[in-house]
Amino acid sequence: MGRWYIDKGPESDVVISSRVRLARNFRKYPFPSKLDKEQGGRVLEEVKDAVFNSNSTLAGDVTFIDIKALNPIEKQSLVEKHLISPELAENGRESGLLISRDEKISIMINEEDHLRIQCMFSGMQISDAWKLCNNIDLLLESKIDFAFSRQYGYLTCCPTNIGTGIRASVMLHLPGLVMTGYIKGILEACGKLGVAVRGIYGENSYASGNMFQISNQVTLGQKEDEIVTGVTNIASQIIEQERMLRAELHRQNPYRFEDKIYRSFAVFSSARIISYEESLKLISDVRLGLDMGIIKGISIETLNEIMLLIQPASLQKTAGSVLGPDERDIKRAEIIRNKLKVN
Amino acid sequence: MLCQRCQKRNASVHFTQIINNKKTEMYLCEQCARENEKSDINMGAPLGLNDLLTGLLGINPNVHMGEAAPEQIHCEKCGMTYEEFQRTGKFGCSDCYEVFEQKLGPLFKRLHGSTGHVGKIPGNASSEIKSTREIEKLKELLNKSIQNEDYEKAAEIRDKIKRLSEQKLK
């Protein structure tokens, strides 16, 4: 497991992680939805060849995973770690994943596009993620003739990705904005500024545990740097707002504020049965308590690790067996208590 | 008259829908009308990106307009038809962009507010693409120099543009 999920990055009191992905396609093959099995296999081989015979550090750092060969729990646990998209897990095509040892780099092959180059970092590090993505892109383009037009830039399967093919996103924890209801205004403003807000698993998912993913909507007509800066600037403003509201909420009614956090912590650390939904809600309060110095004695890193381990598929992977919903809820409570070192 | 949705049963319901001041009229059979109503009432279902996209392309995925399909253009490389593109909102291959080109300008304008790429270009892109980009950059610089009344520099840039344009023609 990569350390980056657990490490706390810059601005970690609000920013959980940063991610940049580039969509790229071969010029000579139809996009994955129109590929036959044989062509799909060739795309896989050519990408592997481009990476493994590239005489670069990347070649020694990544491993190939054949998605078809994975069982549902293994696939789902990759989705939970954001290493692959739900679409790649389910599409049943000749699809694969190249993944770096530290799990910061993941290259999806034959997702909606032939290539989805993705780099993830903890905390607020979008520009580093973009730099790394760009380097991988430069390496691949020396071997692969990408579909590109002078007018429309990089050609992608979905018109929402054309041009730069870039999606830059940050995952934010925004309990202050949610508690005060100001989140609604932020969401509306983001929409007007060309920034999309989604739940933690991207498209069509809803926000749980006060986690929001914000990302650029526009990919055409702006330079990559401008897009990355745009998302960074909007995120920075949201971060400032969030910090201010947290402090204000605490100032207005410290007893009520701390009571809510301590109650959540109490349930979180002593529950014997806990659903995923409930644990996300409680983690949000506990994280807030840690960030504000109200709860002491456990680290953000421990909380990050718990967050990763208690997801349904990761949980079953750790347990080494398929568990029913009730068994999962018991196992989840056990993992939480273990990690918090309480009994 | 046949139902405009299923094209099988007789139409018995006149259905009018007004969205954003745009009126859509349809003649449906009872069963399709009921299903249509359901799909309208079901606001709880998340509106997917696909639905929005196809909406931008002017088609409501839940409703088949009774009109004749637009011209039967299709992509030779992947077999994608314009109808399929409208329905799915996705391209089948890089050639589709040329095949459906006439339809794309307004779509990209609505999605991105722009129709032209200004970001990075692949290192192995044709020299034509590169020199076009270079000329665009130089033109920007030229305008700036003129605004700053730096005519000496402007002349230099003008000559450079001229040279590049001549090279390109060759």
UniProtKB/TrEMBL annotation, chain A:
This is Protein-arginine kinase. It comes from the Bacteria. Catalyzes the specific phosphorylation of arginine residues in proteins. A motif (RDXXRA motif of the pArg binding pocket involved in allosteric regulation) lies at residues 328-333. The keyword Magnesium does not apply. It is an enzyme of class 2 (transferase). The lineage of its organism: Bacteria, Bacillati, Bacillota, Clostridia, Eubacteriales. Its EC number is 2.7.14.1. ATP binds at residues 17-21, 82, 116, 167-171, 198-203. GO terms for cellular component: extracellular space. GO terms for biological process: phosphocreatine biosynthetic process. Keywords: Allosteric enzyme, ATP-binding, Kinase, Nucleotide-binding, Transferase. It catalyses: L-arginyl-[protein] + ATP = N(omega)-phospho-L-arginyl-[protein] + ADP + H(+). Residues 14-245 form the Phosphagen kinase C-terminal domain. Belongs to the ATP:guanido phosphotransferase family. The keyword Transferase applies.
Automatic annotation (TrEMBL), chain B:
GO terms for biological process: stress response to cadmium ion; stress response to copper ion. GO terms for molecular function: cadmium ion binding; cobalt ion binding; copper ion binding; kinase activity; zinc ion binding. Keywords: Kinase, Transferase. Residues 132-167 form the UVR domain. This is Protein arginine kinase activator.
